[in-house]
Every structure is written in C-alpha cells, then in structure tokens.
Design brief:
Layout lengths: L1 H14 L7 H32 L4 H16 L1 H10 L9 H18 L9 H29 L5 H30 L1 H14 L2 H5 L18 H6 L4 H12 L2 H31 L4 H30 L1 H21 L7 H28 L6 H29 L2 H19 L4 H14 L1
Main location: membrane
Membrane topology: Multi-pass membrane protein
Protein name: PAT family beta-lactamase induction signal transducer AmpG
C-alpha cells in the first residue's frame, strides 16, 4: 500500500513538469515567453524611435525605421507552415522552434548593439532591427502554435490575458530601462546590457516539456507522444488542403480583414506618439519613455488579471466592440482638443487610457483568433491573422511620415480613428458557434 502511494506520488510530481498536465506551469511558461518578446519590441519600436526623435531625425526617417522592423512580422505566414510540417517530434510539436527562435533573438539583439555610429547609420540600424524582428516573429509563431496545441479552450482567454499582459510589461520595462541606459551609457552598452535578460529567458523552453514521455534535448531519452503524432501533418499537400478548408470559412475571412484594419491603428499610434510628444510638444525621450512605461505596466497588470476574465464573462465579440468604441472616443477626443495638448497631464491620461484599451483589445482579439483556429493547422492559421495585423501595423507605421507631410496632427489622429470604426463593422459579422461547428465536422472527417 505504501509503495503504491509512493509510486502515485512520484507520478504526480513527474506530471507537474509537463505543460499538458500542469495549468500553473502553462501560465508561467507562456507568460515568461511573452515577457521576453516584449524586451526587444520595447527597444526597437519605442526606445530607438524616441531616441531618434530626440536627436532631430525627421518623421519620415523614424517612420521608415519602424516600418522596416515591422516587415518580418508580416512574413510569419511563411514561417508557420514550416513549423506545422517539420519539427523534432520527440521534443514536442513546437518547443524545438521556440528554442531556435530564442537563440536567434539573443544573437540578433546583441548584433544591433554593434552598429557603428547608429544615428548616422540608419541603414545598419534598420538591418539589425529587421533581424531582431525576424527571430522575434519566429519565437512568436512557435509560442502561439504551442499555446493553441496545449492550452484548453476554456483557459485560452485567461492565458491570453497573462501572456499579453506579460509582453506589455516587458515592453514597458525595456523601454524605460533602455532609454535610461542609452542616455547614461550610450547606445552600444545599453543594448548589450539588456540582451542579458533576453538570454536568461531561454532557460524556460529548455527545462519544460510539452507532454509526458518527450525528450528534454535531442540527445536525451524520450519519444513522441501519441497526441503529437496524430496532430502532426505529414505532407505539404495535407497542410495546404487543411488550411484551405479553414480559411475559406466566412468568419476566418472576416477576422483576417479586421486584423489588417486594426493593425493600421496600432502602427499609426505607436509610431506617431514618440514623434508627436517629443517634436510637437517638446517632451524629452526620457519623459516619453517614463509616461509610456508607467501607463503600459498598469495596462499590463490589469490585462493579466482582468482582461481575460472580462472576455470569459461577457464574450469575445461584445468586449472587442466595447474596447473599439472606447478607442475611437479616446483618439477622437485628442484630435478635437488641441488646446489641451500642452497640458502634460492630459497627454499622460490619453497614453494611459489608450494602452489600457490596447492591451484589453489585444487580449480579446487574440482569444477570438484562437477560438477560430483548427488545431491541425493552428500555427499557420493563427499566424495568418497575426501576419495580416502586422502588415497593417507596418503600413500604418510607414504612413505616419506621409500623412504628417500633407496634414496637421489633428487630421492625422482623425484618420487613425477610422481604423477601429471599420473594425467594429467586421467584428459584428463573425459567428463563432457556426465556425466551431464547421471545425468539428472537419475534425471528424480528418
């Protein structure tokens, strides 16, 4: 009897090391992986553009940098089918790709710190930033695909809250710390220092496993799980045939268009804010980074513990539409009240509320996209949604300089507010129940 209890206890302890068996480990692991995605994003999308604005680079130059580093995120749709088709199955369906992406992220993050005279070498800065985004996209696709494989549907909204909240906090902290270090120690030393944090997180995917019985490393003992074998697609024909089935469903098409449109808003706001606050309002890059970091850390914490719960309670569509309406009102208010722009508290409140709704909106949209995914091509389908969003984001970033050249900031902001308005029209057309029923029929036939 005693030996039986010991065996059962040892099995419980062993199972706690696998993502499929331990919800707490799932939450912690995916939160850590998203946290590390936020670190290079905080530097490339926010700290460097603010630093360039502080050093009198033009809106066109800054917008060009942001647009270039956004391009690899649009390539995720080319990466995802590779991950659905090839892997070291004995180590899990997506975990080997997570480790590979993390290694590339470490190397490319170190490389950007080696760019000589970056203020006068924007091409070198763009190339290094491009590769950071490329490997960041690699790790992102693998992490999202693994989350859809591993996380039960009932946990997806909560998991997305923790994941996106963690990324937001990572972005905010890396921005404020990176800006401080750049101003104090110089660009190269600052970036090299922050790369240590990126390197440390690689321990997370190295020491967990997706399912019981799998290998920790290629040279250790283990074998593919039955679930992974059944879900793994074995030919390109099978992948594209399965993908075609799911992407021609109406709700998939509608969500794809909505993702592209809302991505425009993300790119416009993220790029115009450092230029607007520093060059129009006279802020320093330090004051901008502090405002951004404080507000997004607050948004991240609320997102982690409230964002997912609200989606669970009220539903995806309802919460997405509420967040979009709030965002329209917020951006429209900033555009129509230029007399308050010199009031730092007013701008601070705008940034705080925008990134709060931004965080909540991302959590709700990501959960909705996951709900629309068919597990056999989950990485590719989810990545399609994210690639469209990032295409919109890159386009929005590139538009800032052009729009500012032909109109005032008031009209640039009003143009930005059109994006969430159009998104509402598409979100209202999505039918989750009908879509899930179609997926169940596909699965039976598969």
């Amino acid at each position: 009897m005693a030996s039986k209890l010991v065996i059962e206890k040892s099995k419980i302890i062993e199972n706690n090391r696998f993502l499929t068996e331990n919800p707490i480990l799932r939450y912690l692991t995916f939160s850590a992986l998203y946290l590390v995605q936020g670190i290079p994003e905080g530097i490339t999308y926010f700290a460097i553009p603010a630093w360039l604005a502080m050093n009198n680079k033009t809106p066109v130059e800054i917008a060009s940098f942001v647009a270039v580093i956004g391009i690899p995120w649009s390539f995720k749709i080319l990466i995802a089918p590779l991950m659905d088709r090839f892997t070291i199955l004995s180590m899990g369906r997506k975990r080997p790709w997570v480790i590979f992406g993390q290694l590339g992220l470490i190397i490319s993050f170190l490389a950007i710190g080696l760019v000589q005279d970056p203020l006068n070498n924007l091409n070198g800065l763009m190339i290094s930033g491009f590769f950071i985004s490329f490997f960041g996209a690699f790790q992102d696709v693998a992490t999202d695909g693994m989350a859809i494989d591993i996380v039960p549907i009932k946990e997806q909204a909560r998991s997305n809250g923790l994941m996106w909240g963690s990324k937001t906090i990572g972005t905010a902290l890396s921005l404020v710390i990176g800006t401080t270090l750049i101003n104090m120690l110089g660009f190269t030393t600052a970036i090299s220092s922050l790369s240590i944090a990126v390197a440390f997180i690689i321990l997370v995917p190295i020491f967990f496993r997706e399912r019981p019985g799998e290998k920790l490393m290629p040279w250790t003992k283990g074998e593919p799980s039955k679930q992974s074998k059944n879900a793994q697609l074995k030919s390109w024909k099978q992948i594209f045939k399965s993908l075609l089935k799911i992407i021609i469903l109406p709700s998939t098409i509608i969500m794809g268009v909505a993702s592209l449109i809302i991505g425009l808003m993300y790119g416009l706001i993220d790029t115009l804010l450092p230029i607007f606050t520093i060059q129009e309002l006279g802020w320093t890059n330090t004051s901008y980074s502090q405002a951004y970091s404080i507000t997004t850390v607050a948004g991240g914490f609320f997102g982690m513990f409230v964002g997912g719960a609200l989606v669970d309670f009220f539903g995806n569509k309802r919460m997405i539409i509420i967040y979009l309406i709030a965002t329209i009102v917020l951006i429209g208010s900033l555009a129509l009240l230029p007399e308050f722009w010199k009031n730092d508290k007013f701008i601070f409140v705008f940034i705080m509320l925008y990134y709060l709704f931004y965080t909540f909106l991302c959590i709700a949209i990501f959960a909705a996209c996951m709900k629309l995914c068919w597990e056999v091509v989950a990485a590719t389908q989810f990545t399609l949604f994210m690639a469209l969003s990032n295409m919109g984001r890159a386009s929005g970033s590139g538009l800032v300089g052009t729009l500012k050249d032909i109109m005032s900031w008031e009209y640039v902001l009003l143009c930005t507010a059109i994006s969430p308005l159009l998104t509402i029209l598409f979100i209202k057309l999505i039918n989750f129940k009908k879509h899930r029923k179609s997926i169940e029929e596909f699965t039976i036939k598969y």
